[in-house]
């Protein structure tokens, strides 16, 4: 339909403009983009630095925009045709960059009102990690958390996780999350790497312009324009861990009005595997034993190692908890841990008029990976489809997109994603077989599970050894463990029985019987923005409507296939006014947004800011801002219903819950008998339904050019959070009511409770009744010696001021207090040889999650890349790697260390 729109207004009198683009030393620069401002008409310089284009001088002057990665863009007005124009490009500095993310309009990075990091195309090409998001760790105040090789989340200003649920990630303003999990799988659904023009990261609250989920930051990826950046680019790499990586981008103009591009690629490798055998924190498993205990213990990277707290019928085991031998991550994925990511993204752009452009695009992405949230999930052939339409003019834009995620085929007989925790647990509940290979039954002929047989054998052996050894508990535990392992073993990995049971469970989507994870949610959004520019004030207004249709067939959320998807919506509108004073040296701005939520009512997010620039060229810029932002719990947190054995995770958007703190399990081990009400009164717990979390944040900063070659950016922030959303464990009824003593006794031991029973250990998201405060600062510096050498360095400081949280509360701050980067890069041998290297050091810190809590050790990581270009062949030979010295590099507690990856390859680039 777009292609058949009337062709009008295109009759022009065109005249030729020819010229040459050179660097500061007078050498020709190939590949420079030369465009006529306000149009898609342009050219790229050849190997001699020459360009030629046609321009209409009827409305002179015509302005040429000359841009090239690593150089400051130039605007050259022409009153008439030129045949020998010479353009000299100077190396760009920090203040030459233009960003759009901070205020949703183009502005100089020096005069942005908040802290922003821009990663240009050259820096994107220097990223050595398999996933783009993981490579952002080398920049100031950006933290990354990798659950596996290709699955990384990012955060700013603390409260990091493997999910990025306090920030939003956008590709050309389309959200890249998988809606079922409210998570971005690294750059899976983002812009393909060869199509990335730049990446912008807004630090801190941005709800005033982006909505409530832009609580601690925004990551915006801008793609290349097919009208301006045409040609074919192909990148091929291979490396250790069986790494194979192929990427492609092709863009072509079909006349002056239509342009087409397609980009994408695939990467596969042998993923890292979780091997953390430390004891799970008692915050998550109060009855846990120390690592190595002969009573057994719940280990972080072991699944199915469930515990049974014995009561009086256990004899000498009364009050003790015995844990099953479980299965490692390698056992459950059969020690075959391939990971891959594949995506394809075609788009068509059409100039409807000289000032209006429409773009239709589609993106498909799929992956094999391991994701960590409340459990570890093996993601098999999962991904998303995303369709998008955008129409934009000079000062307005309308966009709409829809994302549909999937988790492999829905056919139970084919591979699909699954929950490792469920898989391990259900394996233990399979009917046991004896030494003769026959199924084991009890005296009544009922099936006996591996778990029941093991615990029964252990208890009998323990009590016998306890008496024989004069009450020596350690000797009894050792004897019982040895006897149970020999006479009542659990399923053994590698056997046919294990394989058959495993395959049956991972293909079974029935909650409580299988481990299949089904994702089938839909995210739809429509938005628009209009810019009013006047001599008095510049105004931006916009709005958006977003709707989730959440579906998991009961494997993750409280939906069922019969009930259909869960619908949830939110919408909002925003406005921003800004004005420059004192000959553009002072810029004041105010913005505000009103959002309406289906589950949380209405919220208002304001932001006010001031930027003062000193110097004739505004080379010293001082900024300050105040923001208030709101955060809703993630969609899966609002509607989750996930039984992980030791607890059941449920949503909390209703009227709340009443129950008892988990201290009850410590004071009354086993909880096997009805308990007096008087004993419980001091342990009562009550939580209302969730409310929006709110943050008030102030920041000050400086960005400037101290000398012609030295650039500095520094900032400090202070944030105070109210209605802070954290997790709590308690003992309660699933309908929200407080259980009676009889219900508590009937439900114990909780980890083996019948799903039909109302009383469980319940985990919810809830608001903490205290103000949570944090602060931080960062500084980055760069010294440019010329194209041959640039030195960069940055330091980040983050601290959680609030220390005394309510018992059982997890804050998920998960951020190193100190982080340091030092980098070098440059071009040698007439720009044919490129190099870059980065050293990163991160201090040790505590990582909290609903899956595992523990200490992340300090890390020192070195990344580097070297490239040599053969211009006549349009080819660059590349070698490089990340974590070259294979040091410990844990980023998520419970996930594997991100080890060494080295590669070699070729980059073909034909304009």
TrEMBL record:
Biological processes per GO annotation:
siderophore transmembrane transport
Q: How does it sit in the membrane?
A: Multi-pass membrane protein
Ranges for domain TonB-dependent receptor plug: 111-218
Tell me which InterPro entries the record gives: Beta-barrel_TonB (IPR000531), Beta-barrel_TonB_sf (IPR036942), CarboxyPept-like_regulatory (IPR008969), Plug_dom (IPR012910), Plug_dom_sf (IPR037066), TonB-dep_rcpt-like (IPR039426)
Where is the TonB-dependent receptor-like beta-barrel domain positioned along the sequence?
A: 426-884
Compartment(s): Cell outer membrane
Q: What is its main location?
A: membrane
Give any GO molecular function from the UniProt entry. Answer: siderophore uptake transmembrane transporter activity
Q: Which Gene3D superfamilies match?
A: Carboxypeptidase-like, regulatory domain, TonB-dependent receptor, beta-barrel domain, TonB-dependent receptor, plug domain
Looking up Pfam families in the UniProt record yields: CarbopepD_reg_2, Plug, TonB_dep_Rec_b-barrel
Keywords, ordered alphabetically: Cell outer membrane, Membrane, Receptor, Signal, TonB box, Transmembrane, Transmembrane beta strand, Transport
Q: Which GO terms describe its cellular component?
A: cell outer membrane
Q: Which family does it belong to?
A: Belongs to the TonB-dependent receptor family.
Protein name (database record) = Uncharacterized protein
